Amino acid sequence: xxxxxxxxxxxxxxxxxxxxxxxxxxxxxxxxxxxxxxxxxxxxxxxxxxxxxxxxxxxxxxxxxxxxxxxxxxxxxxxxxxxxxxxxxxxxxxxxxxxxxxxxxxxxxxxxxxxxxxxxxxxxxxxxxxxxxxxxxxxxxxxxxxxxxxxxxxxxxxxxxxxxxxxxxxxxxxxxxxxxxxxxxxxxxxxxxxxxxxxxxxxxxxxxxxxxxxxxxxxxxxxxxxxxxxxxxxxxxxxxxxxxxxxxxxxxxxxxxxxxxxxxxxxxxxxxx
Length: 273
Fold this sequence. Notes:
Layout: E1 2-4, E2 10-13, E3 16-17, H1 23-34, E4 40-41, H2 42-50, H3 58-77, H4 81-88, E5 89-92, E6 95-98, H5 106-122, H6 126-137, H7 152-178, H8 182-195, H9 200-212, H10 216-234, H11 240-250
Antiparallel strand pairs: 1-2, 2-3, 4-6, 5-6
Helix pairs in contact: 1-3, 3-4, 5-6, 5-7, 6-7, 7-9, 8-9, 9-10, 10-11
């Protein structure tokens, strides 16, 4: 089985879809996909579907959803599929478990690649890190579970995944900056800071990309506009690391031009102390 949650929900067995079209069964399947091989208690499934407002028929309705999922699995599995489906989506004491290996779900492949990329980044292997981060991000086909109704459990999972995606983008850009690709990053970073107008890490990267490309005035303008926004909307100044980056640019600090050399952290972290 191949399952994708990093974008629209997709589940395929033998070339056939196993994802039901009805909203709540899709929601249940998506929850199983996020926890392959783990027994999900009935109470957890009910909370996801109905939150705290359980209908009197909740147990019977949930069993109907499980039957619908097994029916989809059975059709895709082919001969003897109905019985095999019961072992794939198995009943356990107090709950159910989707018995598929975690590597069949794209989110676990993504997290493995991110982990390898971070290890390479920490060792200063910037080319390998950037490549691994790009491969991980290439698994995304849109916002996580974009076509699935989210309950309280999956809302948290999707929030975690989207935050991880943004951090991975940041780390990939850091690796590219360390490789001297500042000019290539400008348009991407301009788009990112427009979509994340209070994100200081992305603004630091945009400032450095512009500065290294000979656009000091534009780099300083990025800081000026962020500072104005933070003061107006939150009543706070930019953080000390960003202020130090700004001061380094005003002073034309030669350290800003360094793109190779010893292992370092992120653009933002460099000015943390």
